[in-house]
């Protein structure tokens, strides 16, 4: 195992744990990837009738569905600085689960090793480009899931708006990336429902609420994935996820 001390971070409960997030290497709106040999840009979530990406006024924000009942998979980091890939794989797994599709486990550790060579943490923008270009590997080794629709968030308001339009995502704070599955307004202030990768079990230890405005957007970023555009590829006799 490498020297990962710099990725140790005191969490909100005061306990120091392994995180593993690097700062984004591109400006907001600057994530690019290759598709069929053609360079493509990841769009920003912003009001656009063609993409149906409205930025909802805060006065109209509403809590989304509680996603705890849809949890079935655990992504425990186990000492690796791989929170970014654990969070991204979590966002995809939740997207499949809540739409009644087959429970499809991803190999976040392989994805992390592919991106970093096992040498350290990863940045969210780079991880997203990898997922859109190469795809996230399935845990059983039979193929990948490639993201075909995702957004970069130019503001926390845009990120919260995407969550209210059926997206899952990844948001970051304090050298740590977490899977985000919803928006919660019940406490009188907007918070996101986060699932981290610090505990080796289901049932709530990884779950917490986090203030939307504390997401470190410019340093690390926040990305959105629209579940209906996830596509399973390179797996014989397995249906396209969009039509499943």
Give the uncertain stretches in residue-range form. 235-244
Please, how many helices? 4
How many domains make up the 3D coordinates? 1
Write down the overall mean pLDDT. Answer: 89
CATH level 1 name: Alpha Beta
Q: Structural class from helices and strands? A: alpha+beta
- What is the level-2 CATH architecture name? Alpha-Beta Complex
Explained architecture:
The chain has 244 residues and is of the alpha+beta class. It has one domain (5-232): Cathepsin B, Chain A (Alpha-Beta Complex), CATH 3.90.70. The protein is 18% helix and 24% strand. The chain contains four helices and 13 strands. It has helices at 83-98, 108-116, 124-133, 156-163; strands spanning 8-10, 16-18, 32-35, 38-41, 136-137, 144-147, 150-152, 167-173, 176-184, 191-195, 207-211, 222-226, 230-233. A six-stranded antiparallel beta sheet has the order 7-12-8-9-10-11, sandwiched between helices. Strands 5-6-13 form a three-stranded antiparallel beta sheet. It has a two-stranded antiparallel ribbon with strand order 1-2. The longest helix has 16 residues, at 83-98. The chain is globular. The N and C termini lie far apart (40 Å). Residues 235-244 have low confidence and may be disordered.
């Amino acid at each position: 195992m490498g020297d990962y001390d710099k990725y140790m971070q005191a969490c909100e409960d005061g306990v120091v744990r392994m995180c593993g997030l690097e700062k984004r290497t591109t400006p907001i709106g600057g994530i690019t990837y290759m598709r069929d040999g053609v360079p493509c840009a990841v769009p920003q979530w912003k009001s656009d009738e063609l993409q149906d990406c409205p930025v909802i006024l805060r006065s109209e924000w509403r809590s989304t569905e509680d996603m705890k009942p849809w949890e079935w998979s655990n992504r425990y980091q186990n000492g690796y600085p791989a929170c970014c890939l654990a969070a991204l794989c979590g966002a995809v797994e939740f997207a499949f689960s809540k739409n009644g599709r087959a429970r499809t486990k991803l190999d976040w550790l392989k994805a992390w090793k592919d991106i970093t060579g096992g040498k350290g943490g990863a940045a969210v923008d780079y991880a997203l480009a990898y997922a859109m270009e190469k795809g996230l590997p399935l845990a059983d080794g039979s193929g990948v899931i490639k993201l075909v629709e995702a957004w970069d968030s130019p503001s926390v308001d845009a990120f919260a708006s995407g969550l209210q339009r059926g997206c899952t995502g990844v948001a970051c704070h304090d050298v740590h990336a977490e899977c985000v599955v919803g928006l919660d307004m019940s406490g009188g202030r907007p918070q996101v429902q986060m699932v981290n990768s610090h505990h080796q079990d289901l049932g709530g230890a990884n779950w917490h609420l986090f203030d939307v405005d504390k997401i470190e957007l410019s340093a690390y970023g926040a990305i959105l994935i629209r579940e209906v555009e996830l596509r399973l590829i390179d797996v014989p006799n397995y249906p396209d996820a969009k039509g499943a």
